[in-house]
Write a structure and sequence with these properties.
By secondary structure, the chain is of the alpha/beta class. It has two domains: 3-49 and 86-452, no CATH class; 457-541, Immunoglobulins (Immunoglobulin-like, Sandwich), CATH 2.60.40.10. The chain is built from 15 helices and 21 strands. It has helices at residues 3-8, 22-39, 63-69, 98-103, 131-135, 154-163, 175-183, 222-231, 244-259, 263-272, 283-296, 317-342, 411-421, 427-434, 514-517, and strands at 48-51, 54-57, 76-82, 93-94, 114-116, 121-124, 139-146, 197-200, 217-219, 303-308, 349-354, 375-380, 388-390, 409-410, 458-464, 471-477, 481-488, 494-503, 506-512, 522-530, 533-541. Strands 3, 7, 8, 9, 10, 11, 12, 13 and 14 form a nine-stranded mixed β-sheet that branches. Strand 15 (458-464) and strand 16 (471-477) form a beta hairpin. The radius of gyration is 24 Å and the shape is globular.
Length: 542
């Protein structure tokens, strides 16, 4: 049987292709509705407040930055989101693979149109700007990253990557947000003076959501950022008068500006930092130029996320679409790293690309690709990173009934390796956040983290128990001590002591039965006291 006949027998998942009409449209409309709900209001910075009955967001808190700024590391993580589902096979190419050219007769990257990562692997010449990073040992490729039982909806798969959940599990918190909350349990009492994380783009991403607040400052576009950095406010009110038709708008803008507590620190960092690299004229480069300036201005934010959209390449993929995006991506990264190197900061930053899914390995009838499974991730940074490959390219022959290869590397193992190895988050926290995922040895250069950061008691958090109606509360003690776990009312009044006894060193789960302990539904502070320390975090009992 010819390869083309094999292709004709591959089933198409309903909704993953343009030809599915309403099914495909429903996937996108679900995503659009969610993006609209997330972006309602002037900007998003955490818990809600009201302006004349309209919901908008105010300042979030920053446990991760508080802790990391207190140690000796000044490392920064840059997340680059490739929105829409990047075609991994045309990003990192297995050279000389006849099957690749057979199943992609018109859109495959020709040998003459790629540069060599190795004798076996290449990248399209549209990414030549990355070649110096590779040759200098400052870039790694992780092949075929995905997760079991993949979902092919932009909306759902984006949430899976953001929350680090299983495909059949819905979490309303993100992997960075949970790490922030778990690492520093008393962050609500000690708000920071710098933004916790910054994301630039149209959507307030789930990645930074904690159980009680979003941990990031969300700026919808570079223009909005420049207003903040140059004017110290988000919205201009000078041109508005007190006429009835403008007074309400003026009030809303003034309230928004007053709520923006970070404006002075952003202004200071923006003015101190200067770019020393020529950035290309594209949207991603503009975002990374902002990030570079804030890093150089010593703002202190530890995690940034930027977005490049347009990767949903269902038709005419090579007619400017995907090749142009590859150029934007590579030129923006190259300019950013040159800017960092100009001030000897290249070793202090680590970048990571990710996308909600890959594309089908077969091209479709419109010279494009439909929603697929896994794809490659690019990791870049300083010379200490090294170069090389993790995992192996996808198997293009032994696929499932839909023609999709199995994934090779679980994306959560990448997350865990970065939280642990790059940001120095305690292993117990990483396991709590990601569910005991194996880490990738040597993925990132080791850090010199003070022992104090990794030798503490931790109130990890809570989640529904496997038994309906019960709640599992997780905590960890660095050493044996008299320990008390209790619930406190939000006004500070003691409510219930769950236990008060000596507990040996180790990690534990306390299962709360609200009916047995007589805990009414509502919001509380969960408090852990041990070894002279107090750890608190909000808890909702339904």
């Amino acid at each position: 049987m010819s390869k083309n006949n094999i292709h004709s027998k591959v089933r198409s998942r309903y909704g993953s292709s343009l030809k599915d009409g309403k099914g495909h449209q429903d996937m996108h409309e679900a995503s659009s509705r969610r993006a609209f709900l997330r972006n309602t209001g002037l900007f998003s910075l955490g818990s809600l407040m009201a302006i004349n009955g309209h919901a908008m967001s105010q300042l979030a808190v920053n446990p991760l930055t508080m802790g990391l700024l207190s140690n000796d590391t000044d490392r920064t993580l840059i997340l680059i989101r490739l929105d829409g589902g990047n075609d991994g096979l045309n990003t990192v190419v297995e050279r000389g693979n006849d099957e690749y050219y057979n199943i992609r007769p018109t859109i495959a990257i020709n040998e003459a149109d790629m540069w060599n990562l190795s004798d076996e692997i290449g990248m399209p010449n549209t990414t030549l700007s990355l070649q110096p990073l590779w040759e200098d040992g400052r870039m790694k490729i992780i092949h075929n990253v995905g997760y079991p039982q993949p979902n092919y909806s932009h909306f759902r798969s984006s949430d899976i990557w953001a929350s680090a959940s299983d495909s059949d599990e819905v979490l309303n918190t993100g992997w960075i947000g949970r790490a922030m909350e778990a690492e520093f349990g008393s962050f609500l009492e000690t708000p920071p003076s710098v933004p916790p994380a910054i994301q630039i783009g149209i959507e307030n991403n789930l990645i930074f959501s904690g159980s009680n607040a979003n941990m990031s400052l969300s700026i919808s576009n570079p223009t909005e950022f420049y207003r903040i950095a140059q004017q110290g406010q988000l919205y201009n009110t000078a041109e508005l008068n007190n006429c009835p038709d403008q007074s309400e708008l003026k009030y809303a803008r003034q309230t928004a500006n007053n709520a923006f507590r970070y404006s002075s620190t952003i202004q200071e960092a923006y003015r101190k930092g200067t770019t020393k690299s020529e950035y290309p004229d594209n949207y991603l480069a503009e975002q990374l130029a902002i990030v570079a300036r804030l890093i150089k201005g010593q703002l202190g934010t530890k995690v940034y996320m930027v977005t490049l959209g347009g990767f949903d390449t269902h038709s005419e993929q090579n007619e400017g679409g995907h090749p142009r995006l590859m150029t934007y991506l590579s030129e923006a990264i190259a300019a950013f790293m040159a800017d960092m190197d100009a001030d000897n900061l290249g070793e202090k930053v680590l970048g990571m690309t990710f996308s909600e899914f890959g594309r089908t390995i077969y091209e479709n009838g419109s010279a494009g690709t439909d929603h697929g499974t896994g794809g490659p991730m690019i990791i870049f940074g300083g010379e200490e990173l090294g170069n090389g490959f993790v995992g192996t390219p996808p198997d293009l022959i032994n696929t499932d009934d839909y023609g999709d290869p199995d994934y090779g590397v679980d994306f959560r193992s990448v997350y865990g390796s970065i939280l642990d190895g790059w940001l120095g988050i305690d292993d117990r926290v990483v396991d709590h956040v990601l569910g005991n995922q194996a880490k990738i040895d040597g993925l990132v250069p080791p850090g010199d983290f003070p022992s104090g950061l990794n030798a503490q008691d931790i109130l990890l958090g809570y989640k529904p128990s496997s038994v309906p109606g019960l709640i599992d509360i997780q905590y960890s003690l660095a050493k044996g001590a008299n320990t008390r776990l209790s619930l406190i009312k939000l006004n500070g009044t003691p409510y219930r002591t769950l236990f008060d006894s000596y507990v040996n060193r180790g990690s534990y789960t306390y299962t709360l039965n609200p009916q047995k302990v007589v805990v009414a539904s509502g919001s509380y502070m969960l408090e852990l006291r041990s070894s002279g320390k107090t750890h608190r975090r909000h808890m909702l009992v339904k």
